[in-house]
Amino acid sequence: MTDTLKSRLHAQALAEGFSAMRITTPDAIPQAAERLADFVAQGRHGQMAWMAERMGWRGNPSALWPQARSVIMLAESYAPDENPLPLLQQCDRGVISVYAQGRDYHDLVKRRLKRLGRWLIDQTPKTDPAEIKVFVDTAPVMEKPLAQAAGLGWQGKHTNLLSRDLGNWFFLGAIFTTLDLPPDAPEVSHCGSCTACLDICPTAAFPAPYQLDARRCISYLTIEHHGPVDPELRPLMGNRIYGCDDCLAICPWNKFAQAARDIGYAPKHGAPPLAELAALDDTAFRTRFAGSPIKRIGRNRFVRNVLYAIGNSGDPGLAPHAAALLTDPDDTVAEAAAWALGRLQPAP
Ligand code: B12
Ligand code: SF4
Ligand code: SF4
Prior knowledge:
single chain, 4-stranded antiparallel β-sheet, two-stranded parallel ribbon, 15 helices, binds cobalamin
């Protein structure tokens, strides 16, 4: 019965708009807890204190929900039509990561997961219905190792999940269920001798292949890190103002990427002029980024990032836009403005 249910579930997942689905069990990632503990012990999570909390659950899905028997892992493509790397040369513009170009994926993926979960419950007896819990990103669940255990792809040397069918532009979502579904075989790494992602990283954020020090990653610095960024790292951030795609964009497996199927991921923000972004006050920021994941970081952190990009632009024409923020009420913004100005108008 469950084999048939599994194949119908797979068809339903694709009909919902997911790009791929595979199944694993909650006890399938025995090495994850130790690797997570190492990551945290070395301080690689930086200010993401939530990673150090609830580690018992994060590293061990069986402990998170002991009744769960199967973990359904789903991939949702957000592949861009164009390679984002050339935007890094447009120094008067801010580069917003591909994943944040459209609507917030947390909302889009979660809605789809819930619909698929409801469908699954409806397939089980009303007297003894299956139970489910859906997760995307924010729960204490290690989605990448679970997805590799399910055979959805492998964690590349850049630590993200990629696959031979999808490249690496896809989000992950999980449905835990009390149903016993037949698990799939895990995937193995197909990175081979390639080191493209390690070599392109502007901040040398990979201490070793398959390991990331988030404290050096521009995605972490622009999205998660609050307060001033280490001045030594700022010049390496270039014009990346929200997230970073370099290690993803260079991966040769992207030639197999499937186009994003949800119109919600269509690029809305592009690479806006830095001058325009530096002028955003709180209200204008909220209006401009309503429905986008960017809204989560708030105006001050966003404008801080914009000021670092202005400082890196080499364009003295942007100096007045930094000067206008020297007396900003937010100390980090004011300090970033002074830093940017200092870079554009070096002392005689
Ligand atoms: C914390 C976090 C971040 C942090 C830290 C990233 C990281 N690599 O840990 C920061 C803010 C930097 C970040 C950035 C990004 N993130 Co993020 N992030 C997460 C989150 C919430 C948890 C990840 C985690 O558990 N990290 C802890 C470390 C210890 O785990 P790990 O990376 O799996 O580490 C493994 C390896 O180190 C490995 N390992 C260690 N040694 C060895 C040795 C060998 C030989 C091998 C094989 C493996 C190995 O074992 C560890 C466990 O598997 C997940 C969502 C989730 N709940 O899972 C999203 C998630 C990973 N992020 C995602 C995305 C899209 C991104 C960005 C691409 C966004 C952007 N464009 O800016 C970047 C990519 C940066 C990068 N190169 O990783 C997606 C990735 C989808 C995918 N296809 O993989 C996820 C899954 C969210 C989602 N639901 O879609 N993220
Ligand atoms: S996202 Fe950017 S900074 Fe972070 S590891 Fe990848 S290339 Fe390096
Ligand atoms: S760029 Fe190369 S090493 Fe990095 S994930 Fe892709 S195949 Fe693996």
